[in-house]
Write a structure and sequence with these properties.
This is Transmembrane protein. Keywords: Membrane, Transmembrane, Transmembrane helix. There is one protein chain. By secondary structure, this protein is α+β, with helices and mostly antiparallel strands. The protein is built from twelve helices and 17 strands. The protein has three domains: 93 residues, no CATH class; 311 residues, no CATH class; 50 residues, no CATH class. 33% of the residues lie in helices and 24% in strands. α1 runs antiparallel to α10 and α4 packs antiparallel against α7. The longest helix is centred in the C-terminal third of the chain and has 35 residues. It starts with 18 loop residues before the first helix and ends with a helix.
């Protein structure tokens, strides 16, 4: 007889009543469990999506959020964003636009390592310090629309340094903030976009003071200039923090000498020649400016307005950058200090020249009263730079791909479980009966309707000795007849 390289196995029914129920119930449970597991492992895919809050996007909550990571196939994530130098950016509070001036790290040995761009991932800004505030005045170098709105204009520029933490250590960034209430038409930006009396109330009052004192400063500059025969056509005032005030108390920040000033004002000598006159070049504070006179200090009435504007700018920018701590308490987050600091707001607004009231209709025009705003939250929250991140979020596959992926995986798992189940039964139950003869017999009374009613098999000795049934020959008779038949067949073959 030909023998193929392949073979097959003979099978027989398992003689256990519990085998089929366990298989059916366990199979249903296993298929359901494997399907859920395979949906988690194979049923989702990652799709790109832009986000302004990568921490929230990458930690999105769904039914797989609490699963072990090795069981889930698709994990949401967001990449770092790279912001080039000189890019304009806001914080998440959208108060003042900033320009990224420089980025650096402090390497080993206290060496500064300058970076060509800012690699950022929504880290909170920490310990922001303002190194300077620059107020510019300009009369002539302005557009027609600017002159139509205000006869004198200018900007307020702040320079701040912050740092944020990362796996590689601290990264420092210099941010130049710009406040220009009446900017040129080509400069498309907005400031204090979302702040009002109930939302971001601290920035609302900071904006109110900055805008009012800025208009008052421009008005007083224009009025002082009218008294001069040779008028100033532009100027600049530098303001910085006194070195001994880097760590300040509430009493320090309310002092009028909290900041010091330096200025340059330019006038025309003749139509073709320009010169500048330098004043307060030794960085005078407000008390010194009040005591000096003559050629040391120009005859201007705006020194107090500059001081108020600079202090309002200082703490408003710090609030926008999220700075408010024991070493530098913020006026805008303390109701009593804010009330005292805004006492002159209404008076300044009422006495402002009519030509300089443009744009003051949507800001606070009187001092802050805590009793009028008992539920207003003035707390300053940490700030992050507002930018867009490229993220990958988890979404369910389309039905056809989902069914195919889960079905294939279920077949693999169920097949493996079926083999394991058979191996366990064959090893621990059928294995004990494997030592008996292959032709194990049962007593007739143990057979009913062709099925064995008692799984206990007849010992080998009973099979060898044979037994006589009530309905048929004994095993020995059957064996004898089988041998006789075999002998007759052999004899017939020989004769042939």
């Amino acid at each position: 007889m030909y023998k193929s390289l392949y073979s097959y196995s003979l099978t027989r029914h398992y003689p256990y009543r519990w085998f089929t129920p366990v298989l059916v119930v366990g199979g249903v449970i296993a298929i359901a469990g494997f399907s859920i597991l395979n949906v988690a492992a194979q049923g989702y895919e990652l799709t790109p999506r832009s986000s302004v809050n990568p921490n929230e996007t990458s930690s999105q909550r769904d039914w797989l959020s609490n699963w072990p990571t090795f069981l889930v196939g698709a994990h949401p994530s967001c990449e770092d964003t790279v912001i080039p130098l000189q890019a304009q950016i806001y914080t998440n509070k959208s108060a003042i636009p900033y320009t990224i001036e420089s980025v650096w790290k402090i390497a080993d040995g206290e060496q500064i390592e300058n970076l060509g761009s800012l690699v950022y991932h929504n880290q909170p800004l920490q310990q922001c310090n303002i190194s300077s505030i620059v107020s510019d005045f300009d009369i002539q170098a302005r557009s027609a629309s600017q002159m139509a709105m205000l006869p004198v204009g200018g900007t307020v520029t702040t320079t701040a340094v912050c740092y944020f933490g990362s796996k590689e250590g601290r990264t420092y960034v210099q941010l130049n903030g710009l406040f220009d209430p009446v900017g040129p038409s080509y400069r498309n930006y907005r400031s204090f976009i979302y702040s009002n009396q109930s939302y971001q109330a601290n920035l609302y009052w900071g904006h109110s003071m900055m805008r009012t004192y800025w208009a008052d400063m421009m008005w007083k500059f224009a009025e002082s200039n009218k008294k001069r025969g040779n008028r100033w056509y532009n100027g600049v005032v530098f303001v910085d923090l006194l070195p001994e005030k880097q760590i300040a108390t509430e009493q320090d920040i309310m002092d009028k000498d909290f900041l010091r000033l330096d200025c340059f004002l330019n006038m025309r000598q003749d139509p073709d020649t320009r010169t500048f006159i330098e004043f307060c070049d030794s960085r005078k504070n407000m008390t010194m400016l009040a005591e000096l006179g003559g050629d040391d200090v120009p005859d201007l009435d705006f020194w107090e307005s500059i001081n108020n504007l600079s202090k309002a700018t200082y703490f408003t920018v710090l609030a926008d950058l999220g700075r408010d701590d024991a070493s530098m308490p913020n006026i805008l987050s303390r109701p009593s200090l804010l009330k005292d600091f805004t006492q002159g707001l209404a008076f300044t607004r009422e006495n402002l020249g009519t030509a300089f009231t443009w744009g003051l209709h949507d800001i606070g025009t009187k001092s802050f009263d805590p009793s009028e705003f008992p539920s207003v939250d003035l707390a300053i929250e940490p700030a992050v730079l507002s930018t867009t991140y490229l993220c990958k979020v988890r979404v369910l596959k389309n039905p056809a791909n989902l069914i195919m992926a889960v079905l294939v995986a279920d077949i693999v798992f169920v097949s493996a479980l079926w083999r394991l189940y058979k191996w366990v039964v064959d090893t621990f139950w059928v294995g004990e009966a494997a030592t008996l003869p292959q032709c194990a017999c049962y007593k007739p009374e143990e057979v009913k309707n062709g099925e064995v009613t008692d799984e206990e098999q007849i010992p080998l000795q009973s099979i060898q000795s044979g037994f006589t049934s009530k309905d048929g020959p004994s095993v020995g008779d059957i064996a004898g007849k089988s041998r006789s038949t075999e002998q007759i067949a052999n004899r017939s073959g020989s004769e042939a």
